[in-house]
Phosphoglycerate kinase
Amino acid sequence: LRRIEDADVHGKRVLVRVDFNVPMKDGVVTDATRLMAALPTITWLKREKAKVILLAHFGRPKGQRVPDASLAPVAPALADLMASPVEFAADCFGPEAEAAVQALQPGGVLLLENTRYHAGEEANDPDFAAALAKLGDIYVNDAFSAAHRAHGSTAGVAALLPAYAGLAMQRELDHIGQALNDPRRPVIAIVGGAKVSTKIALLENLVSKVDKLFVGGAMANTFLAAQGHNVGKSLYEADFADTAKAIMEAARTHGCELILPRDLVCAAEFAPNPDTQTVPADAIPANMMALDAGPETVDALADAIDACQTLIWNGPLGAFETPPFETSTVEAAKYAGQRCREGKLIAVAGGGDTVAALNQAGVSGDFTFISTAGGAFLEWMEGKTLPGVEAVTE
Ligand code: 3PG
């Protein structure tokens, strides 16, 4: 990895790819986690008297100048966090962007408009990349969560300028890289979520790397069905029974203990606070659906966590947005958080709903590291090379 600390940025125009794809409501940033993540790099560059030019995408406007995909509201939010000015240019290249860059003083910060307003971004068009490169002397990628995209601002421009990894990108790679490739053993992975079909590559890679793999969420129903159990009205993917069997077989081959729920909290329908029944995992009633893991499962999971020194977590263990089906996710997360506080566990988490689930459990601060990434976290854990990481690697 080429690290930003090794670059001479003094007085230079530094193009920094950040991920400001943040939750926004009525033009107000509602969760500043990704802005906070970018602060160390921005602050470092300011101190080094670089001219900081921030590049980012927002939403999926598909090359159209859609007003509600503007990054304009992010500039004041970032300025508030830093307690110093952030300029904004209404395009990411061309005369307006060039003038704004020209006006920037050393230590100044400029945010450019949504790169995805131009089709050249997602197409990784060489002319688009060249137009971006014109604005900078040095390129820094600090957007691990967008590094799975081979776009103009993550890959194209990186090939045209000296390219480095920012501090947030380094932090992500250091933590999740260690958890997956050089962990304190034994390692347990907890993978939840609705569908096996979206996590096949993840499960395949994990069984070859970790010592224990717990499969939870509706995904587990597909495994239970593959084992020949009746899953009643539960969500499951009949077409992926063979995939589930192959993953169980691969786990055996690699000596990875695959753990499924022992008991399940079921209801007749998926609605908030319905009547529930907790049953053994192999005895889901025909007229009910599994919506959360039960207390025996949480106990078994706690024992498995006790036996391990590293935890990799992706996905909820039940339908956690709908009460009371957050219970097992919250309990297991609290237990893992407590082990981290005691210094007995290194826990990293990321991907999709995971952060929301851990926030709900109130344990985000206890985990060793929580990735800002959704899809990029998954692809990294699948063992894939991410274009945005490759571009800043020796
Ligand atoms: C994310 O929010 O995970 C990243 O910003 C990537 O966004 P994308 O899935 O629209 O490329």
DSSP finds 15 helices and 17 strands in the chain. The mean pLDDT is 97.
